[in-house]
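User: two proteins, same treatment. go.

Assistant:
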Amino acid sequence: GAGRADLAAAAVAVLTQEGHLGATYELGGAPFTLTELAATFSEVLGTPIVYRDVSVAEYTATLTGAGVPPEMAAAVADADAGLARGELFTASEDLAKLLGRPATTAHDAIRNAAEPR
């Protein structure tokens, strides 16, 4: 995953530096599982959060039971299942190259967002 601050910094680099005209970039950070994401939120918030993997059919039924139209529920459940399988992660180093440093990890982004301002 990639955090908004890193994506914004990459956009600044592309818009303010030479050599990016016509270029295409795959922007992503270090991969993580949803179990790892839940553990990070548990740590940061100080309350147990557990990721429970459910089938597409079960998730679709839950969403339709909450009033989501069946077609939308099926699409959301399918997209979330793909996310859980890591289909949106990329091995590309484009983001790190644009930033000039490693991308912020999901763990660090969550910790940073939780810090008092």
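Protein 2:
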Amino acid sequence: MTAILPETMRRGACPSLSAPMQTGDGLLCRAALTAPASPRALVSLCAAALRHGNGILDISARGNLQARGLTPESACLFEHEARTFGLPLRDGIAIDTGPLAGLDAAEEADPRPLAEAIRQGVAERGLAPRLAPKTAVVVDGGGRLPLSALLADIRLRAVKNAGWLLFTGGPERPDAAHGLLTANDAVETALILLSQMAEKGRRFRGRDFGADAVRALAGARLAPARPAPVPAGDPKPFGLFALNDGKTAFGIAPAFGQVRAETLIGFLHAAEAAGIEAIRPAPGHALLLIGAPAACAAMEKAAESAGFLTRADDPRAAIAVCPGQPACTSALFDTHALAAEAARLPRLLDGSFTLHISGCAKGCAHPEPALIALSGQPDGIAFAFDGKAGAPPTASLAIDQAAETLRTLSALVELRREAGETAARCLRRLGPAGIAPALTKGTS
């Protein structure tokens, strides 16, 4: 273990196995995987988290496993043990491919060779220590679970029979596309951009590149491309996915991104007994179980019984929520308690928008704007309409009135919804003025 990242650094810091982060419930260690792992190896990791931490496991928005509640001494033991379980652990910066990379017949191209070449180039050039802790590269082959919503400093997205489209900064946006690259040029250009970021210092990010600078650095490698299409939503990683090798993947997620180690251990034993061969943590706080179609189908009831989400229309899937109190010392209220109340409102949370519940103004769980964002502030909860956590609030709510405000808002949507209208369209049509009656019931 190299260092402990203090709580005050957490918004810009990135914990790992060797650099745990201080949180409200102890140290947090992150285990990032580069490929699927066996159920047995994951059982070993969960058991280590139970021995050395408080037994709470996160699956992060990027699909990383996180053990909570460790001490400086137990974090060292956890890291040592985790490296003996045969897990495909990632060291260095995040270089992400889709969770079905190489297995999805709908992919435009297999992103794994490019990702591995970039990973090797970063290591050979010694770039990782000189880059910002949260530096991320996304190599997206497309398919049924694209990575368009993941934040990335550098993004390469496959275009069938054409090459790789280069983006810099943020989620995938058409205005952030720079042009097309061949596979070899995509690797070299990514390494050139990362080297430039390293030269500029650890505060420089992909979003800080101007279009002219990217074109100058890429040179003749970069070919013009037609305007990139707007990403078609954010597919949820739930249900069954037929794979190109005859196997199936079954996507599930723990409620609000957290699960007890004992619960996951029991579920993993059941998965192994059913014939599940491998499991891949995935973006969206998800787990993808991989095996024969019959094995995956057999796990649906077991997953539901263990409290996992199995359907995209589950109201809990429409909530982006951070750990909140007491797990985070920055949090000003119990976010999961409010999320549990919100999950009882299926007519409001119909899957047409994301409800963001943040314990503070940092908005770690959902950096992009949300139609409704609730964030902790010293005197209660800030309600932002179509904005980010920490943005100037539309209204300020008392903490003990926030759940009632959401219930009133749900009733208002049900009353004012037009035929065929989703909750999101209804809320946008009503606007801040139209929803004001619901907000005044919970104002402080």
